[in-house]
Amino acid sequence: MKTAIVIGGNFAGMTAALELKRKGKDNYRVLVVDKSPLFLFIPSLIWVPFGRREIKDISFRKDEIFRKKGVEFLQAEALEVDTEHNKLITTKGEFIYDHLVIATGPKVQFDVAPGVEEHAYYIGTPNGAMKTRKALEDFKQNPGPIVIGATQNAGCMGAAYEFLFNIEKWLREQNIRKKVDLYWITPETFLGHFGIDGITGGETMLKSFMKMFNIHYRTEVAVKEVKTRWSCFKYWRSFSKCFYDAHASFYRSRFCNQFKIY
Q: Which domain holds residue 145?
């Protein structure tokens, strides 16, 4: 019997493990190593800040699913891979493998610009989504400008667009939309690039939405700095409240021209 180890157990890791076991049957021992026993449906985190979903609504015990399918699960952290000896070293021991799948997902680059980690809100984790919920509740008492967007290096802007329109709707529901200037910033060369060179009709559709919902936008933007009372986006400053989807993967070097908000 061969041993296949999968590091990571969310979308990619869970799919890989279940498929390996389904196709390998009794010829394969499949072991998943992950820090958490919970599967998190990450796309639904954009609903959590508005109370339309709770974390418990978008997560479940993946270790129980694995057990039913004949897949072993180890709640541990992978520390090192010894490729010379086909050995995985974890916080709970060492394991020999015949095949290794690394499906750990992205790591957010909070240090992409000074102040991002301290003063912005990232929606892509349960903790970040709940912090954003609290920030929005506080925000209702003292509305002001909001900036939503993706930092330079972002590889996928889809979720940030979804959050943008969610928050626009939320502002109307709270009867404070007229008190809020809403801004969208993105490193994309055009609206709807999405990191995949766009989709048919995407730019035209998004431009019409921005106009319809009175959302200001800037493309080819890089975040230089975030401060508590103002933010600096490549040599210019403005805005007082900031919410970012701070995914980071590929470096982009083009930036928008200087502008000011009066």
A: 110-245
Placement of tokens 């992978």 in the chain: 78
d(CA 235, CA 160): 23
Instruction: Convert 54-64 to b/e letters by CB count within 10 Å (16 or more is b).
Output: eeeebbeebbe
- For the entire predicted model, the pTM comes to 0.76
260 falls within a domain? no
pLDDT in tens, 49-71: 999 999 999 999 999 999 999 99
List, for residues 74-120, the tens digit of each pLDDT value.
Answer: 999 999 999 999 999 999 999 999 999 999 987 777 777 787 777 78
Which pLDDT value is given to residue 228? 66
- Do 129 and 178 belong to one domain? yes
Strand residue runs (E) in the chain: 2-7, 28-34, 38-40, 59-61, 72-75, 78-82, 87-90, 93-96, 99-102, 146-150, 182-185, 215-218, 225-226, 231-232, 237-238, 241-245
